[in-house]
Structures are given as C-alpha cells and as structure tokens.
Amino acid sequence: GAGVSQTPSNKVTEKGKYVELRCDPISGHTALYWYRQSLGQGPEFLIYFQGTGAADDSGLPNDRFFAVRPEGSVSTLKIQRTERGDSAVYLCASSLNSGSDEQFFGPGTRLTVL
Amino acid sequence: KQEVTQIPAALSVPEGENLVLNCSFTDSAIYNLQWFRQDPGKGLTSLLLIQSSQREQTSGRLNASLDKSSGRSTLYIAASQPGDSATYLCAVEDSNYQLIWGAGTKLIIKP
Fold this sequence. Notes:
The complex is a heterodimer. Chain A has strands at residues 5-7, 10-13, 19-24, 31-37, 44-50, 53-56, 65-68, 75-79, 88-95, 104-105, 109-113. By secondary structure, chain A is mainly β. Chain A binds chain B through residues 4, 33, 35, 40-45, 48, 55-56, 58-59, 91, 93, 98-100, 102-108, and chain B through 4, 31-32, 34, 36, 42-46, 49, 51, 89, 91, 93, 96-104.
C-alpha cells in the first residue's frame, strides 16, 4: 500500500506569512508524528497524535505552531507569522499504534522562509 | 534529558570495506533504538529496530547491536558498496514515546 505522503514537497514563503503543511499517514495507522529537521541536524520532535487528539505537543517551539488531525487520519501543521528560523524540513511519520511500534516516514516538506 | 550522539560525523571509505558507525545515548530508559538511512532530498528509511530487551538485529549486510546499560549502539556494514552512501541516523524512543535523534553520520563509499 501507499506510504506516508506529504504536501507540498517544497514551500517558499515570506517572513510573516501563514503556512499549512499536510501529512497523509498510512491507512489504518492511529499514531501520527511531526518532526522538524534543520540542516546538518537530526530531526526534532514537535507533536504526536493518537487518533484525533494531540497526545504530546511538548515539542512545539511556541504558540505560532499548531497541528490538527480532525478525523484521525490526515494532519495539518500550521505555522503563523513565519520567521526565517522556521526554515527546515518538516517530517511526518505514522505508526500502527503509539508506543514501540515502528514509525514510517514521509519524504518531508522543505520550508524556506525568506 | 536524553541526548543522542553519533560518531563520527562523517566517514569516507573505499568500496568493499567493513565499517562501524557508533551511537551513544545518556538515559538507558528507552523502549527501542532505530537506525535510519537518509538520502539527500528524501525521507527517512528505517533500517533496523532493536527493542530494549534485544541485543542485536541483522538485515542483509547490516548488523546493529544494543548495549542499553552502557548507552551504546553500533551499526556494522559489511562489504560496503557505493549505494550505501547516505546519512545514517540513530534514534531512541524514550519513555514518552518520543524519538530522540542523533545528528547523523554522513557516509561516503568511494568506488
């Protein structure tokens, strides 16, 4: 079956604008994770959902970042008033359940804030 | 706070050599440890997942070991090939089900 998909693959925006990044998990996976990866670094955890609810949002850097998963499938990461420091690759992963199940990653969205 | 370190940051070896990549972590309270491969402009591919109760996992030319008490894991690649060139990342799943990542080892296999 299809893997995790993310759209857009690239997003260029201007400082101060609002952006939305979309993640389509593997069908049937109940857990969904968002990570952010800066150049030359490993990914950093942002938030994870179990079903529709955010089980852990401790990694969101500030209140400009918000994520939703209203029907327990597709998730959208929303960034308000973007800053140049938000530029990174945003990765989404899903797993069958939370816990120690293997996470499967999408190709990421490269966000560039000018 | 869990910290994951990977050494070396970069490695370049001739084709055919066996090599070892290292990963260390500061808190032994983990659910599992995973090794991933990342190719430029592409997502992460899981290579091996070792549960906390396991000591090693093997897949083809790859072997990963885990010593939880000492906070170490190694990824052994046998008979390296140019197609193995990529960045290799290790990540531990902590008690909050978060993956905590190292910065990766950039591997170049020279033909």
